[in-house]
Amino acid sequence: MKKILKENFIAIFIFLILSIIVVHACLTANSNFNNLRQRIEKNKSECVEVLNDKSNYTDDHVNYCKEMENSLGANDIDIYTYLQEVLFFGLYWFNPVAFLIAVIPMLYTLSKKFRYKYIINVNNRESYKNFKKEIFKDGYKYFWIIPALLLIIFINGIIFYKLDYHYTVEYMTSAWYDSSLIYNPIVFLVLFFIYILLLNFTYINMGLIVVRKVHKFFPAVLVSYIFCISVQLFLELILKNLCLILFKSEIGYAFNIMSQLSFNINFGEAPIMLFALFAFIISSTVVAMCYKNKEKLIVACEKNE
Question: φ and ψ at 71, to 5 degrees?
Answer without folding.
Answer: -80, 165
